[in-house]
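Hey, quick one: can you model this chain's 3D structure?
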Amino acid sequence: MSTATPAQLRRTPLFDAHVACGAKMVSFAGYEMPVQYHLGVLKEHLWTREKAGLFDVSHMGQALLKGKDHTSVAAALEALVPADIRELKPGRQRYSQLLGITGGILDDLMVTRPADQSRDGELLLIVNASRKDADYRHIKAGLPAGVSIEPQEHLALVALQGPKAARVLQALAPATAAMSFMSAISTAIGAIPAHVSRSGYTGEDGFEISLDANRAGDLW
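Sure thing. Here's the predicted structure for all 220 residues.
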């Protein structure tokens, strides 16, 4: 839980939508986040385990790592994470940890290589909300010349999780039907452009959807 006062707390692009749905808002990682809706946590939990639930995770940090090509940007990140990034194929995602200078774990993160070949030399990073500012500073300090990190504050992030998540999403985005676990594509959900990965932290099948913050309410 965050120790920030209400006046200091940030809000996700979906704050108004949560309030309109009667969510109980609490302080978490420096943000005002919904801890539950009127039906309660237990029913929400069971619904996600049996069907599918939609989560606002826009408080998490999204950043773009950029270099001249995949080899250079992957080598730069491999100096900071204990994972094989050079062999990461286009359209694939990898879970790893961000390490400190003595090898201790600072945070965990998702690393995605975009499927679009025109984005060779880019890696998409998702880090935890409570650590994102410190993570960005640590990553920036460890990068060689020619590689940069760009926080993507204009993006929102939602997670669709549960055994029926694929069925729900495929009705709006048919291209997601062919996705395997830890794959990622750029597609449209209805008429909304989005970057979608088949991943999540609930232990169920699911997807994480990154999109322009201005369209988050429409998707929700």
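One thing worth noting: The chain has a mean pLDDT of 96.
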